[in-house]
Write a structure and sequence with these properties.
Blueprint (H helix, E strand, L loop, with lengths): L3 E6 L3 H13 L3 E7 L3 H11 L3 E3 L2 H5 L6 E4 L6 H10 L3 E5 L6 H14 L3 E4 L6 H12 L5 E11 L16 H17 L5 E8 L6 E10 L3 E8 L1 E12 L2 E6 L10 E7 L8 E6 L4 H13 L9 H20 L3 E2 L6
Parallel strand pairs: 1-2, 1-4, 2-3, 4-5, 5-6, 7-10
Antiparallel strand pairs: 7-11, 8-9, 8-15, 9-10, 11-12, 12-13, 13-14
Helix pairs in contact: 1-8, 4-5, 5-9
């Protein structure tokens, strides 16, 4: 297929460290332009990655007829407006998570997507990793019996108080940065949407961001997710999936190195002492490469997009319910859009 020509909005770290290298590595993508309000920074990053054009204006990037698709790693509070501008310019959009600050904003973007017909997807790279796909197949196979519980966490230690994740005006906070991953894992593995949320936040100041989140999501058929996420705790990212006939452990679940072999551990239901563990091994894989490859193929019509904007809207309803639960200290039902 002909490569999809991407423009990159901003010189954010995730773009430099992961997404631009991923796009450069796969034949389905070509990075042709980048924009940043800091012209010298845009020029430096363009030179580093061999990107032919750089702009100091987002509008100039959108006016570039060579650019077919936009990757958006701007601060969370800019995602929807940047994505709407790109869609109205006729560009496809791959936007970093969270797609929006709330479901209402996500629905605004969904309406623009319907009007323009462009492809829009929320960039959750984990859903493309071969190990996550294999974990879902293990559940589907019935090997674990009826899966009733998922326990998952993602915590990081971020010692930079000036980081955008600690700035409420930019949409920072643990829920939107790290807590979303355990939630996404449960929606992915249960293949269902939660019906209710009970959650708590930890904050350093009443008007500050949540530095930690923990809670319970209730899914249909008496299934549950126990989850947590934190910005000021030791690095930890793992998933446990528990069924009536066994359980599955996914260590280093969110952010394995692209050079790292990954594993799934399976235990039988009667193995009290952890003596009969089956380890399934997966060769190194770059989940960002898998993500951008699939998005490009969807743009070209070779495949149907696995994660359309409707999935992101559903996810935002879950985050809204979690925030409301934490604020009200109560169990909150998750809103469902009709249709």
């Amino acid at each position: 297929m002909k490569p999809v020509r991407f423009g990159i909005v901003s010189t954010a770290k995730i773009a430099r460290d992961w997404v631009i290298p991923a796009m450069k590595a796969v034949p389905e993508c070509e990075v042709v332009a980048i924009s940043s309000r800091d012209g010298s920074r845009a020029a430096r990053v363009a030179s580093e990655f061999g990107i032919s054009k750089h702009y100091t204006s987002f509008s100039d990037l959108l006016n570039d007829d060579e650019v077919e698709a936009i990757y958006i790693p701007t601060p969370n509070n800019r995602h929807v407006e940047d994505a709407i501008a790109a869609a109205r310019a006729g560009k496809h959009v791959l936007c970093e998570k969270p797609l929006a600050l709330d479901a209402a904003d996500a629905l605004r973007l969904a309406e623009v997507q319907m009007q323009t017909g462009v492809q829009i997807s929320e960039a959750f790279m984990v859903r493309y990793h071969p190990r996550w796909l294999a974990a879902r197949e293990i559940i589907r196979s019935g090997r674990l019996g009826r899966v009733t519980q998922i326990h998952a966490t993602y915590s990081v230690i971020n010692d930079n108080p000036q980081d955008i994740r600690f700035q409420p005006e930019l949409g920072g906070g643990a829920l939107g940065d790290v807590g979303v991953y355990p939630i996404t894992a449960a929606r992915f593995l249960f293949e269902a949407e939660p019906i209710a949320a009970t959650a708590t936040f930890e904050k350093l100041a009443p008007d500050g961001v949540d530095i930690a989140v923990a809670g319970l999501l209730e899914f249909p058929d008496n299934r549950n997710l126990l989850f947590s996420g934190a910005l000021l705790q030791a690095w930890a990212h793992w998933i446990m999936v528990i069924g009536t006939d066994g359980w599955m452990e996914i260590p280093v679940a969110v952010w394995p190195s692209a050079e790292q072999e990954t594993i799934i551990k399976l235990r039988k239901r009667d193995d009290i002492y952890d003596r009969d563990v089956e380890t399934i091994r997966f060769p190194p894989a770059n989940q960002y490469e898998e993500e951008v490859r699939e998005f490009a193929r969807a743009i070209r019509g070779e495949i149907r997009q696995s994660w359309p904007i409707s999935d992101a809207v559903a996810g935002m309803h879950v985050l809204d319910a979690i925030r409301r639960s934490a604020a009200e200290r109560a169990r909150v039902l998750v809103h469902r859009d009709r249709g």
